[in-house]
Write a structure and sequence with these properties.
By secondary structure, this protein is α+β, with helices and mostly antiparallel strands. It folds into 3 domains: 111 residues, Immunoglobulins (Immunoglobulin-like, Sandwich), CATH 2.60.40.10; 86 residues, Immunoglobulins (Immunoglobulin-like); 217 residues, no CATH class. It contains 6 helices and 18 strands. The longest helix is centred in the C-terminal third of the chain and has 87 residues.
Length: 473
């Protein structure tokens, strides 16, 4: 009986015992949460996370001290977006209904690390639109932290070499950077070189293309570095280049050949300009008013106009002649202006050539003086002397070439100046002739209109007499 009684009562006690157990665990959990609220922290890095386009990255976030949040709520948001939710974890599963469309299929948490308080967010295939401030929030603890994501794009620079009058021009170009980088030029010792301003172009994809140029001369170490860097993202790319000493020697001799070729070209162009000018000058030299006077005198010799109709015919011929002269005048005026423009460009080139030759000549004189002052060492004296004599001979030969080129350039400048003055005078005369032709043409048209009106008036009077003879009588 006792056994049966206990057996009957036990089912009634079980629900009560289970409820007490659940209540006990819940109370303990609440106590733990309340205790942790004042102690737990949500920690994320202070420095920004740098991401390059296409990367898979992690936005770190941890609860300290560690605690199991596998069955609580974790929210990753971006306050500047609507909806702001990037990723939400609640009660052991992902809630993606309110997730912003930009992040569909690209976010996840490390579910196996949630028990240790690691709530870092993994973001795949990073895009430029992902840059911004992310908030890591645990509602149960009412604690949050932020992570800054900085988007970056980098590429290695390329260096091109161009000849310059006093050395070589190095151009460094680099595309596909974000944010905008800066460009630096360094020598072999790491010292900054003085370069021109950096040119920056922002493409439709918001990526930057930068380029910078620097002119370098021969030095102890002809090694140079182009460095492209972005301090905020701590990204740096470099490209090195070394120029051999022989390259500078070749450049120096080729500069002379270029100067000679340029001078020959200048002579040829000036000769063509002179020929064109002579052709244009011989084409028309008669003053328009004199030519019109000859036309009128010739007409009077043949048959002097007697009637108004004959006058109109004469004026029509005159008008045709004036229009033809005006057209020729405008054509020659345009031709003269083209010649003047060509001569002005030629003058500018000649002045630049003169400056380069003067600079090269001065540099050559300095080198000759330096070589003459050098003392020949006793060891291997004959060989050194021979080399020195050859070098001095080449330098002196180059000096004579520079001198001759400079003299030719000065002569060409004088000839060009003289030609510009003559063509300018010719242009002035053509402009005055054009003004006279326009004036004569207007006078001819006015005179013809007056005669035409007079003839129309006389015609009207005759018709009136025919129609009303009695009234006239």
């Amino acid at each position: 009986m006792m056994f049966n009684l206990k057996d009957e009562q036990s089912p009634k006690r079980r629900p009560l015992t289970f409820s007490v157990l659940v209540f006990h665990h819940a109370a303990v959990l609440l106590l733990l949460i309340n205790c942790c609220k004042g102690q737990s922290q949500v920690i994320s890095p202070r420095l920004p996370i740098v991401a390059v386009a296409g990367d898979d990255i992690i936005l770190p976030c941890h609860i300290k001290p560690a605690m199991d949040v596998a069955f609580t709520t974790v929210e990753w948001t971006r306050p500047d977006l609507k909806p702001r939710f990037v990723h939400v974890w609640r009660s052991g599963q992902e809630l993606l209904d309110d997730q912003h469309p930009l992040y569909k299929g690209r976010t996840s948490l490390f579910t196996n690390k949630l028990k240790s308080g690691d709530i870092s967010l993994q973001l795949s295939k990073v895009k430029q639109s992902d840059k911004g401030t992310y908030r890591c929030f645990v509602p149960m603890l009412n604690k949050d932290s932020t992570v800054e994501l900085v988007f970056g794009s980098v590429s290695s620079p390329e260096i091109d070499i161009y000849k310059a009058s006093n050395g070589f021009l190095l151009e460094c170009k680099c595309n596909g950077w974000y944010p905008e980088p800066e460009v630096l030029w360094l020598d072999a010792e790491g010292n900054l070189l003085s370069a021109g301003p950096t040119e920056t172009v922002r493409g439709p994809d918001d990526l930057y293309t930068v380029s910078s140029r620097v002119t370098v001369e021969k030095r102890h170490s002809n090694s140079f570095t182009c460095r492209v860097q972005q301090k905020n993202t701590n990204q740096t790319r470099e490209t090195h280049i070394s120029l051999s000493a022989d390259l500078f020697k070749a450049q120096s001799s080729s500069a002379i050949r270029i100067s000679i070729c340029l001078a020959v070209c200048i002579v040829a162009v000036v000769a063509v300009v002179v020929a064109l000018w002579k052709w244009g000058r011989n084409k028309k030299t008669t003053d328009p008013s004199t030519e019109l006077q000859l036309l009128m005198e010739g007409d009077e010799d043949r048959q002097k106009p007697r009637t108004e109709r004959e006058k109109i015919v004469f004026l029509d011929k005159t008008k045709v002649k004036l229009e033809e002269d005006l057209q020729n005048n405008e054509g020659e005026l345009q031709h003269v202006q083209q010649v003047i423009t060509t001569l002005m460009d030629q003058k500018k080139d000649l002045k630049n050539q003169r400056e380069k030759l003067t600079s090269q000549q001065q540099e050559n004189k300095t080198k000759i003086e330096e070589y003459k002052k050098k003392k020949t060492p006793k060891t291997d004296k004959d060989n050194k002397m021979r080399k020195r004599e050859i070098t001095l001979h080449n330098l002196e030969k180059r000096e004579n070439e520079h001198k001759e080129l400079l003299q030719n350039t000065e002569k060409l400048l004088e000839s060009t100046e003289e030609m510009i003055n003559k063509m300018t005078e010719r242009k002035g005369k053509l402009e005055r002739d054009k003004e006279k032709l326009n004036k004569l043409l207007k006078e001819t048209e006015r005179e013809r209109e007056e005669i035409e009106k007079k003839l129309q008036s006389e015609q009207s009077e005759r018709e009136e007499e025919i129609n009303h003879p009695m009234m006239t009588a």
